[in-house]
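Exercise 7. Predict the structure of AraC family transcriptional regulator from Flammeovirga pectinis.
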Amino acid sequence: MSLTEIINYSTILKTKILPVKMQELYYMFLNGIKKVDTSTTSHNHKVTEEQLIALFNIRQGILENLNERPDVGDLVSKSGIDKTLIQQLFHEVFGYTIYNFYMVNRMERVKNVLLKGKLSMSEIAEKFGFSHVQHFSSTFKKYFDESPSRFVKLNK
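Solution. The predicted structure, encoded as tokens:
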């Protein structure tokens, strides 16, 4: 099925299908990356295989633990690549700064947990490291333009 067909699906079905499609696109990207000219980026940096591996390691490290705010400095230093360069390359390859990538993916995971309906708002807030339910609610509204409770009502 194509992504344009998925747009017509119900919201609940979309939340189940889109993560699968995203994973599929990710694997297609990884398979195609060897065929893409990665010799330069938009800022004329030469992108090496070592840098690509470092970028995907940082990405994976973030995705594996969305419950805690990543230590960007630690992730970058573990890459062994210049801090400014790796941050710039991360933004160019993934379209987000390292921290924004974490936040967008964290909020998508929060949304999916919320839709499952197994945890209360306070349990979700605690699980994903929000200081309190109000902070969770305001952050959710910032990303999805509605409160978590309204979002659940509209999507159940």
